[in-house]
Amino acid sequence: MKRFKKIAKWTGFILLFIIVALTALTATRQDLRFEAPYPNIKASTDSTVIAQGKHLVYSMAHCADCHSNQNTDSLAQLGIEPTLSGGRKFAFELGNFYSRNITADEETGIGKLTDAEIARTLYYGVNSKGQAMIDFMPFHNVSEEHMTAIISYLRTLKPVKNVVPENEYSTLGKVLKAFLVKPVGPKGTIPKTVTPDTTAAYGNYIVNNVANCAGCHTLRGPTGDYIGEPLAGGNAFVEPGLDTLTPPNLTPHPESRIYGWSKQNFIDRVRMGKLIKHSHMPWNSYKKMTDDELTAIYNYLQSVKPAKTSVEKK
Ligand code: HEC
Ligand code: HEC
């Protein structure tokens, strides 16, 4: 008994020491800086390039769904583009995160950032201060042509003053930030340009490089890593007081939500937009994709490996 007490006491001391050390280390590692290359991207003033950027921002890349704090549902009905002045709150286990003001305002927006700094943020997950960002925006393999178009359009946004709160990391978030959060960058080489057509290849590019369908429709583990079959259904969105919504299976498997849907059914469904009010899917943006873009997505979804619906383990 005496011996046990002694062991317990020492274990207690050691544990306490580890906790104190970890807490101190976590605190000193809250402002880590990372290196990443500055991409050779220069905004253009060509009206065709700007129009292409506008289409990307408000449709498949769905920047407006995250970078606006306005009622994007009513604006979508009215056909008004939301202002990209940021401030939308994303609250989860790691803390509260706020999308930034990406209008041209010099103090509260991105007016002072260079094209290369903005491109570095989006390609390499390192913000203008050199801090790693949580991977909200997996645009790491967007083509250089599309990145140029997106930034060219952002440069035309009129400056809107809107101070966005700083991110608030939870204790868990702080520990992960100190030891685990690393900037996510491109896989392989960034394509210069990708031919826009109705093929599965272009659909693959939209789904995986721009629209990020897999981010919700593939099952992910606690740290965000992909653990389910690609596009075979994702993690449930559980919100108090609201029906839980689960991103369904989109593969060509009999269990898939879209099994048996014709190309026209798929296009018509996307065009209907948001039918469930609290759905997290950025329907308002996606419904603005062209028929050709939606056809490419449909062709790609038909070509992926059919898989049974992923089920989350609780
Ligand atoms: C899923 C939500 C989401 C989408 C979609 C999204 N963003 Fe973001 N964005 C965020 C969040 C959240 C932050 C803040 C991240 C942080 O501070 O760690 C952010 C930060 C940024 C920043 C950094 C600004 C700065 O002050 O350094 C830029 C630039 C940016 N986004 C541009 C875009 C563009 C352009 C698009 C569309 C092509 C886009 N975002 C789409 C959520 C999103
Ligand atoms: C931010 C998360 C998110 C993203 C990104 C997302 N989805 Fe979804 N999706 C959902 C959720 C949640 C549902 C279930 C609720 C609903 O139907 O709106 C859903 C439902 C669907 C449905 C079934 C609709 C129905 O009426 O049965 C289809 C089809 C679909 N998504 C396709 C896509 C495609 C294609 C993409 C990429 C272009 C995509 N989703 C991106 C979350 C997402």
Automatic annotation (TrEMBL):
The Cytochrome c domain sits at: 48-158, 198-305
Determine the domain of life of the protein's source. Answer: Bacteria
Asked if Iron is a keyword of the record, the answer is yes
Read off the Pfam families from this record.
Answer: Cytochrom_C (PF00034)
Gene3D superfamilies referenced in this protein's UniProt entry, alphabetically: Cytochrome c-like domain (1.10.760.10)
The GO terms this record gives for MF are: electron transfer activity; heme binding; metal ion binding
Q: What keywords is this UniProt entry annotated with?
A: Heme, Iron, Metal-binding
Q: What is this protein called?
A: Cytochrome c
User: Which organism does this record belong to?
Assistant: Lacibacter sediminis
